[in-house]
User: Fold this.
Amino acid sequence: MNTDPTRRPEGTDDPVAIGAALRPVEDRLRRGLADEAATVTPGDRLGVILTEARTAPARTAGTGGPGGPGSRPHRWLLPVAAASAAVLVAGGVWAATRGGSPTPPVAGQQTSAVVSTSAPSASSTPSASQPSTVPTQTAQGPATSTASVPPRSVLVPTPVYYLGPVISGASPRLFREFVPASVTAPPTAQGKALAALRLAMGAPPSSSSYVSAWAGVDPVSVTLDGSGRIVVTLSAGLPSGSPVPADLAVQQLVWTAQAAVGQGTKPVVLVVKGGGDVAPGMPSGQAHQRPGDAMGVYDVLAPLWVDEPARGATVKAGQPLTVKGVASTFEANVEWQVLRGSTVVATGHTTASAGAPERGSYSFRVKALPAGDYVVRVLESSPKDGTPDAEQRIPFTVR
Assistant:
């Protein structure tokens, strides 16, 4: 019995002697591992190496050779294999990280792709069938992608020209209102024009007496061509049975597009997608302009507009209300009322900066109003009998 704890049992290998005999092997192994590590991609090979080590033919000691007398498997083979695997993995990680940025951590959940900060290999180049925008992984958070981010929209006050009668039973003309329109950011002239045309050609505000001339027709696109023209593409031509004359319906699109772009002199070219006329006698692709004289403008535009407050606006209670607009009336006279239901709560008159057929600006102030729903009414009375010749009504709320 061996009672000396420092004495090895007989028949066991001397670790010192074995280590000395393996020194050349160790040196060659280290050099081989270093060379190999420089060419491999880091991976977890520990399980495979251990499996191969367990199933490999056992090497023997003694003079009998393999399978001879006194042969037995070396117990140090498995630890050496494990150590070799550890060295291989460590060497691979060192080789992959030297001289470059660290490999991004892999997310806990599977992602479609991870872009490394190191230079891409030829095999990582997206093919024609793969999306060019892929999620990117950073040290600050999980993979993100800009491809799924919807475009941001902003509300922009846009001039919109609506069609409506200047007084009940009268022929329609164009009324301008500034309406908040949803436009893709950053707003462009084409984007604002397209948004304004959609409002002008769509369903009119429920609080108005406006009519729709382009029911079922949509603006498809707005572009500015090289010659400075505004090209508006429509889904179809003016529908038959429109309650508005064709020339006035076209003028609605001309004034709206020019005002939104900010160029009142640019020709507007109306194009029908798929072909066909814009209206009877108006072929697709023809350029249109505003009237060039004051009387021509007077026949198209309503005599009275209200620019401020906007339709449906909320006004702060306890403060005077300022009303602003444009007029083209006899001797520049503008009468006004503030209504609460059918009750007139304030009234007065003012003078515009120009009289008909020219157009001039006007403004007036109304004393502070208590909270409630109101309508501001501006009107032109007939010099003959005092009956209204034209008017505009804009609802607003005081809170």
